Amino acid sequence: MQAKDRIIVALDTQDTRKAREWVSTLVGNVGGFKIGLEYMTSLLSRMMTLNPDEANKEFEEARDLFNSIGTDLFWDGKWHDIPNTLKGSAKSISLISPRYFNVHASSGIAAMRAAASEKGDSKMLVVTVLTSLDEEDAFLVYGAPSKATVVKFARDAKLAGADGLICSPQEITVIRQRPELDDLILVTPGVRPAWAVVGDQRRVMTPSEAIKAGATALVIGRPITQPPSEVGTSLDAVERITQEIANLA
Prior knowledge:
Layout: E1 7-10, H1 16-26, E2 32-36, H2 37-49, H3 52-69, E3 73-79, H4 83-93, E4 100-104, H5 109-116, E5 123-127, H6 135-142, H7 146-160, E6 164-166, H8 172-176, E7 185-188, H9 207-213, E8 217-220, H10 222-225, H11 234-246
Helix pairs in contact: 1-3, 2-3, 4-5, 5-7
């Protein structure tokens, strides 16, 4: 895998035109693009509230966005529901064949297995512990340290037929140390170059640290879409991150 192909850009915006600009600038220079809840929800809201002409225009712009991304799409729905609902959702999303889609491990093995049964050509990733949670938060939510929780969720995900995990960079090593889990794809948010602001992420690493630890791909948003002025444009940011990863070879 080339260094650039390890980068997935998070299109965290409500603005279709802004997302299209980022894709137009970066397509071919990164491995893919993540579209998440913020954009999905805002698009649906606009489609339901705009007048018919405006809604149709919005739809065409959104369709152009998805066509530009093509199969390099990570559908970040973070589904968490009962087995029947996840099965139906996976069947629906399989019609556009994103490279990845995801479900929450805390939905349970039966729900994950139901989603995996309808994944089609896509890879199903399982969300473990959100990277915005620190250790105190992890104890409050799960009653256990983040690493122990992630390993448990990883085993459940493997049993359910998932292809990989969404985990923080700090849990990569503990997963890669377990032979029964080593073949899982590890897609890691919470990645921040040394020159970027950490923001609301807690369990973070730099791109080179995460790849060296064993990450398959990195989800990076604001450091690319809103880079510091001294870094330059979004493309400049991508080039710096790509070079950082390539230097590990």
